[in-house]
Amino acid sequence: QSRHAWRKLAAARQWNKEVLPALIQPYMAYERIVQSGSVILSSGNGTDHFLCRCIKRLLQITCVYLDRIEDISLEVCACNIAATQLVKRGLFPCTPVHPTLAVNIDMLEFAAGLFVHLSPNEHAWASNLSGFLRKHGYLLHTSDSLQHRFANSLAHYQVLVRLAHAEMSQSIEAVQTALLVSSPEVPLVDLIPLILERLPPLHDKIPIFQCDYLNAQSNIGHSPVQKPGEPFERPSAPDLIVCIDSNFQQKRNTDHDHREGHDGMEGASDPPIFSANMIFLSREFLQEWEAKVKTIRSAKGPNVGKKRPRPSTSLADEGDRCEDGLHVPNSALQQCGDSFITADENRIKASRTCFSDTGLMGLLCHHDHVLFLANMWTAGEKQFYALALIDALMKEIPCHWQVGLLYDIACQLHRVLIKWKYLDVWLPRLRFATSVFHAYRHQWVCQLWYHPRKAQIWGLSDGEGCEQLWACLRKLIPVLRVTGYHRRLFILDLQIEQRDSEETLSLCKQLRDRINKTQARLGLAKAEFDALGYSQEYLRGQFEQQRAYQSRPIQKQSKNKGVIIVNRIIQLTNEVETLKDQKGDLVKELERIYEDDEDSAMTQSLRFDMISALEAKDAAITRLETQIKSKTTKLNLGDPTNAAKLKEMKKDDWFSIQLNMRALKDRIISKIQERKFEVANLDRAVRTQAMEHAKKAIKRCSPTVDKLVTQFNWLQEKLISRKKPTPHAVVPPPIDPKGLHRLDIDADIWLDFDIDEDTLAKSGGWVPPWLGNENVHKGICFMQEMVNCQEEIARCQQELASMQTWYCEEYIAYQYTL
């Protein structure tokens, strides 16, 4: 490290270990004086005289106010340091020892409040302040600029405010403990001073990697309690609902060593900031989980992490199954994993050569308040980040609480936890669901089990709080790209703390508004449900039958295996053609981006994402073509029977139309999914050019989808006019283009109307009501809407009651603490 880096590190140690802990009580005393309206000791009233034998030193300090500059003299010693005297006068020093400049605390408070609503820019503030004071005849007669010293004062003042709040929180928690253990024999008035005196010094516990809001959230987020006489019976709902998501836009450039002879080497990190109640998990804790994941995987065998062996080519090995603890077959889970880049932890999302920190992963409660954050440094979204966040949460909540987890790839995470047994202790207390916004990329079978609107325990929680968080932090992307490691985490922490504190003040109003809106939705759903005339028990049974049938594994043995393979070959061929069309669209879009020749950070990110998507399409095409070749080999077309089957099925008009309709339906879903993904990029776009690209892509997509829907419905009418090959053949219903782009979970586009003819033959041609009766299908949707609304209302009402209790406890403890 350079000499400058060593000096910064030494100053940081003095701030964190000596000066800031000593300033907590003077700062709190200053705040009490300000709030009481008393007169503050001005900067020109001289020095506080201490009767000590220390060696005295006289300091000349320039005091910067918003409207003036004053010079004062302070007599300092080891017992009466300059920082303490300055804080008593409403000033804050720029250095821990022997400062030459101090800044008014009111101005620092105003700047700190401004910078949590805007992108922090100390340089602009200091330059504007210098020009403003210069116009009023005040000049700084120092060698170094105001910018550096103002930024230094502001940063450490923000840390001091955090420490003072942590000191107050520690005292309040101690008083709450005293309220629990007090008795007539030990009065509360005598007990509180004893407990407060025995509190350990706060600086002995810094840094504290625990979110202070988590304790408050634990009290607010209680599981709703069933009230006597209430007709609604709640199932085993989770006590706490959280969501997890990652963001790869919040990167930080790699620090380079610019000293002569050190080209290409990574530079020294900025000094650490020891702040209390940081919401970020420590780097050491994340690295422990990274090592734990590697150890568990390596213990499973030498082939872990290597390329999977080729599957057997025999017909007997064709099959599918549901793993223990899962309801979704492996085939559907594999397709879900292939459709999500997030599920591939080896996919490069940010260059490690350009960025030291590649992104963030957050864990939020269902009120959209941040509980924990993980700073990511790997090129991809590794699983150990999510595991560390879950582990940190489970260690902080009561041991009997059930936790509902909403995640983009919840099905993949659930499968991984069962397979590798990462969180064996916590797994029985976890419930999994996909976030609503990303559920459309999952297979229909997966949505039947993991979509929060298809279960009775989630209410109206959607898991999209992380998206709102990333939108709130979007303004920090340019600034934090060039900020130091510790300073970046601290700025993010301050921004999130301000956001959560503002939302906490309006949380009661939000809950009341949510109850009113949910009651309105419940009334509409109940009216539609009552008009159909079905009971909840009957419709619940139909939905369970639908789940059981549509999530059954593919049978391993079948007397019509040859027909199935021929069917699959034709399906795969259609999928390859669809992927090639999508690849062509991506190539055209990428060419348009390069023609614009804009070198912004957002455009570079779009190029990187589209190149990654092209590589994924190529890999998928290669994989499907390999499957076609393999299945063609399995079919043994040299056998006259199989060759005749293939020839006959290709010429069969009914079969050909049905396969074309299936391929069209897959293309429609794929196009709408891509449009939904583009809308997500549009919401996150920060550059006008990037927004224009997304808008153009959406406009180009709509006519294509409408054309495909028209073609599908035309084939459906054509299929009706054809003679059925068997008495049990089912004609799929037409697609309604109205509201198709919303990808609603209850839209007909998701329903798979293909049913096994063997099953129909066994039932005498009887089609189950959940498939063939439109009123039953609507009734299931209205029933689920009613149950979700009832669950949401019960949860919100209990949270309001819990919040009132918590506020009363906090107020009583606060009064005793003061």
Name some characteristics of this structure.
25 helices, 56% helix, 818 residues, coiled coil, 7% strand, 11 strands, KDZ, alpha/beta, single chain, 5-stranded mixed β-sheet, 3 domains, CxC1-like cysteine cluster associated with KDZ transposases domain-containing protein, 4-stranded mixed β-sheet
Number of strands: 11
Strand content: 5-15%
Strands in their spatial order, largest beta sheet: 9-8-5-10-11
Largest sheet: 5 strands, mixed
- Estimate the global geometry from the Cα principal axes: elongated
The value of Rg in angstroms is: 32 Å
Please estimate the helix content.
Answer: 55-70%
What is the overall number of helices?
Answer: 25
Question: What is the total domain count?
Answer: 3
What low-confidence regions span 5 or more consecutive residues with pLDDT below 50?
203-234, 306-318, 680-691
- End-to-end distance: 47 Å
Summed over residues and divided by their number, the pLDDT gives a mean of 78
Structural class per helix/strand content? alpha/beta
Region (Disordered): 300-320
Pfam families: KDZ (PF18758)
Protein name: CxC1-like cysteine cluster associated with KDZ transposases domain-containing protein
Organism: Hydnum rufescens UP504
